[in-house]
Amino acid sequence: MQRFFIMLLCLFFCLGTFAQADSTACLNYKKGYFSYTDSVGNTVLVHRRKNYQYDKNTVTKVRTQFRLNWAGNCSYQITQAITNSKAARKHKNSSTIVVIAKADGDNGYTYTCECKDGTKIKSGYMKKLSKQQYYDLF
Q1: Average pLDDT in the 74-79 region?
Q2: Cα–Cα distance between 75 and 116 in angstroms, integer?
Q3: Residue 136: which residues within 8 A CB-CB, separation 6 or more?
Q4: DSSP assignment letter at 107
Q5: What b/e string do you get for 11-37 counting C-beta neighbours within 10 Å, with b at 16 or more?
Q6: In terms of pLDDT, which residue wins out, 32 or 120?
Q7: Would you list the DSSP string of 43-71?
Q8: I need a labelling partner for 107 at 20 to 30 A (CA). Which of 3, 22, 45, 96 fits?
Q9: What sign does the CA torsion over 118, 119, 125, 128 have?
């Protein structure tokens, strides 16, 4: 029985070691400029710095500020703080866990969102932009 637990412990240690090696690719996404397409097809520009993320929908002109809490290199909790949308204010202080499913280097990453109710898992692609690209679209 002790051998079983020792082998199980070694297995978890090995898996953890390999996961850490892959997660270093996610460090590029903790700050910078990004864009993604929302569920309606609008482009949303994202500026991330320190523990905040600023979103601007280029079509509806809705701006939202989020607080970021990085749980690890490849996952973070995003919490809505401020918005200029009256309809979106009902979601103030609501949070979602975002997992970077696949890092794509300097191009961006594929993400999945785990909703609080557990019914939907939304996924998408966050494209990394240069500062110039971001302000050209702004």
Answers
A1: 95
A2: 15
A3: none
A4: G
A5: eeeeeeeeeeeeeebbeebeebbbbbe
A6: 32
A7: EEEEEEETTEEEEEETTT--EEEEEEEEE
A8: 96
A9: negative
Residue 56: name the closest of 131, 132, 113, 137 by CA: 137
Q: How far is CA 52 from the centre of its chain?
A: 12
Structure tokens at 15: 């898996």
In this prediction, residue 91 carries a pLDDT of 87
Write the pLDDT tens digit of every residue in 13-68.
434 433 333 678 899 999 999 999 998 999 999 999 989 999 999 999 999 999 99
**What pLDDT shows up at residue 67?**
97
Q: Which two tokens stand for residue 53?
A: 């993320």
Q: What is the pTM of this model?
A: 0.78
- Determine the structural domain holding residue 61 and report its residue range: 2-137
Angle at alpha carbon of residue 50, lines to 122 and 31, rounded to 5°: 60
The CATH code of the domain that includes 16 is: 2.40.128
| DSSP symbol at 41 | S
